[in-house]
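Progress narrative, Year 2. Work on Beat protein from Holotrichia oblita advanced from sequence curation to structure prediction during this period.
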Amino acid sequence: MDIDVLMRINSFFICLQIGKSTPNTVVLRNVQQNMTGKYGCEVSTDAPNFYTLVTSAYMYIVRKYL
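Result:
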């Protein structure tokens, strides 16, 4: 079973296809070529430690599926 995650980036809703993604490649649906750019991500854990990891990377839209 593939699990998809719906995310909002600016005013766009895109779908992350977890089952088709790898540790080095992310497969997204509902993206446009002009969405290429630098994106950041922040992940935090819950109590009792509250660790946070923040990173960013440049994302290239290489192919648009219809």
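The chain has one domain: 4-59. Strands lie at 4-9, 12-17, 28-29, 37-44, 52-59.
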